[in-house]
Protein 1
Amino acid sequence: MVYRPLCKGTFEERIDEMLKAKKELADMTVDTGETWIGELSHTVFICKNI
């Protein structure tokens, strides 16, 4: 059985939109199989006061 919302802007629609936006963002930032970020040394991320 499939339910169709009777009004716009329901909680479920907002969650669905948020999940789609998060997936798009993830697809833009890291591709499947990228391993370079795991190979970085922790010292790369340390910021020093200048």
Protein 2
Amino acid sequence: MLLIQPIQAISDKWEHSYSRTKAVYPNLNQINNKFWPAVGRIDNAYGDRNLICSCLPLEEYEKENINIEQ
């Protein structure tokens, strides 16, 4: 499997031994169903299984909601 980012596929500079078509569609079945992930993975599968929320605690949102209603 060839790993190539969309920006590499559209770049004017192409110095690989394989074609752009082969890079973007390593399997011809992908021509009609190509999917470009929107974001990269953090720590691969470990990061997917061990998510960390950086949001405020729910109590903080509840306090804001009470202040708005008063």
Protein 3
Amino acid sequence: MAKILLIEDNHLNRDMLSRRFRRRGYEIVVAPDAEIGIALAHSENPALILMDISLPGMNGWEATRQSKSSAMTAQIPVIAVTVHAMAMEALLQSRAWL
């Protein structure tokens, strides 16, 4: 089945999401921060990226911009994963995810 890259700094969230997707047959690659996530997006060629918005260091917004600006990863869909309602509102109004 498809490979999913999960970029999430919270280990509890990483564990919960990874287990749920693996039980459904997906291959999961995890990254604890944006820098590792961007490198894995290039090397692993996932079918989908689940991106936490609130990452330490480089945040999910910037990581998505970098991913979308690279010819190797621009075609990979990115889904925002966040618990912040205000971040989701800003996401809906931004063009970073297009």
Protein 4
Amino acid sequence: MERLKRISIVLGCVALILAIFVPAALAAPPLILGSQQLTDDAGAISSSDEAAVIEALDTLNTEHDIQLFVVYVASFDGLDSGEWANQTADLKAKAASAKAD
């Protein structure tokens, strides 16, 4: 019984450490997107799915003149998803503007 209690305490400490440090390590601040329309920093999709997404993005661009960027991240770095997306779009626009100058 004492051993079970010790194991529970150790596992609780490990869980607490992971809860504190792992999200910070996985958090992704808003990105500066280049020309690549698919970014998978979270490892969310397989290689075959990646190919299918890229093909769909190319089709969307060719047939409808819409350039869509798909980004997978493990966390939004403390921001809500809309705020993160807006900051990422702002960074993309600033990078494009700087390149044009």
